[in-house]
Known about the structure:
Elements: H1 2-31, E1 44-49, H2 55-69, H3 71-75, E2 79-84, H4 89-95, H5 101-108, E3 112-115, H6 133-140, E4 145-152, E5 157-164, E6 177-179, E7 183-185, H7 192-208, E8 213-218, H8 226-238, E9 245-250, H9 251-257, E10 269-272, H10 274-288, E11 295-299, E12 304-308, H11 314-318, H12 328-340, H13 344-360, H14 375-387, H15 391-399
Parallel strand pairs: 1-2, 1-3, 3-12, 5-10, 8-9, 8-10
Antiparallel strand pairs: 4-5, 4-11, 6-7, 11-12
Helix pairs in contact: 2-12, 2-14, 7-8, 12-13, 13-14, 13-15
The structure holds 3-isopropylmalic acid and magnesium ion.
Amino acid sequence: MSDHKEQIQAAQEKFQKILEEQFARIDKIKQEDDFVDYKNKEKIVIGVVGGDGIGPFITAEAQKILEQLLEDDIKSGKVEIRQIDGLTIENRAKAGKAIPDDVLEELKGCDVILKGPTTTPRKGDGYPNIESANVAMRKALDLFANVRPVKIPQEGIDWTFFRENTEGGYAVGSQGVNLGDDLAVDFTVTTEPGSERIIRAAFDHAKNNGKNKVTVVTKANVIKTTDGKFLETAKKISEDYPDIAMDDWYIDIMTAKLIDPKRRKEFEVLVLPNLYGDILTDEAAEMQGGVGTAGSINMGKRYAMFEAIHGSAPRMVDEGRAKYADPSSIIRAAGMLLNHIGKKEQAEKLEKALDICTNFEKDLVVTGRDDGASGAEFSEYLINTLKRPDLEEVYASYTA
Length: 400
Ligand code: IPM
Ligand code: MG
C-alpha cells in the first residue's frame, strides 16, 4: 500500500508540473499577435532542413525548384534560402533532444521552413527515447494548424483538413506516467484558446475560399471533457460565421463516411483534434493515391513549416537507392510554401508543371529504383517543364 502512496505522490507532482506548463502555454496563446503578413515583410527567409534518410536527397531537389521559381526575388534580396543542417537523428541523439538548441535558434531565424522527413526513434533501435522532431517543432514554433488538402476531382472530392497540431494526446505525449508495472497514464489536453484558434482558422478558410460548411470531428460522446470542450468551442465560434454551416460527427462514423461515395462529397472543410486528424488524414491521403501524395502545412501565426507526409525511408538509403527517392511530394510541399508566402503565380505554375510531369506527360517516371529516373533527373525534367513557354497550353490540353 505504502508503495502506491509514493507512486501516486510522484505522479501527482508530475501532473502538477504538466498543469503549470499548460497554463503558461495558454497565457502565451492569449498574447500572440495575428498571422504575419508576408506582403509587408522586407525579406522572407526560407529555411531548408534536410532531415534524415532520403530527406536530404529529396529536399535538395525541392530547393532547386524553389531557386528556379524565386530567382528574381533571391537576386533582389527579397527572399533568402537558408540551408539548415543538424536536424539529423545522429545529432539529435547526441544532444539528447528532439531539436538541438542551436538548430532551434537557426529555425527561429527563418520565416518559413521546408522540412525533409526526420526519423523518430523507436524502442530497441539503439537511439535514446527522444521526442519526434516533427512534434517538437510544431510545439517549439507553435505551429498549431496542420492543414492537409486532399483532392480527387473525378470523384467530386475536395477536402481541407484542419488538424489541431499542438494539443490533444500530443501536447504531453512524451510525459505520460508509469506507476510501477501495472499502471500507465497518458494525458490529453484541450484548451479553449487552443481550440478557438484552430476552429477559427478553419472557418476563415471556408469563408475565404467560398466553402459553405465546416465539419467538426470529435468523440465528444465518450471523451466528454476534452473533446467536449473542442465541440462546444466550435459551436460558439460558428455563431460568428452565419453564412457557413457547421455539422458535427464522431470520429468512428467519420472514418466510415469518408469512404461512402454518396456522403463523402458533402464534406469540405474539416476541423479536428490532433490524433483524430493524424488518423483521418492518412485515410484521406490514401484515397488520393497514397500518403506520399499529400502535402502538409504546419502553420502558426509567426512561422510555418511545410513537409511531405511520408517518412525518411532509411531502407532506401541502406540499399543505396536514396538518389531514386521520389521528390514530388516534398516539391508539392514547396508549392504550398510558395502559396503561403504570397507567391500565388509561381505556386500555380509549379502545381501545373507537377501535374504534367507526374500525371499526364510522364516522360520520366520515378520508381524508387534504378529502373526509373533519379530525383535529380526528375527535378531537371520539372524545371524544363516550368520553363516551357507553352506550359499553360500543354496543361489545358490535358485537362480540357
Ligand atoms: C504526421 C505524422 C507524425 C504525427 C509523426 C511522424 C509523429 O504521422 O505528421 O501525421 O503523428 O503527427
Ligand atoms: Mg500521421
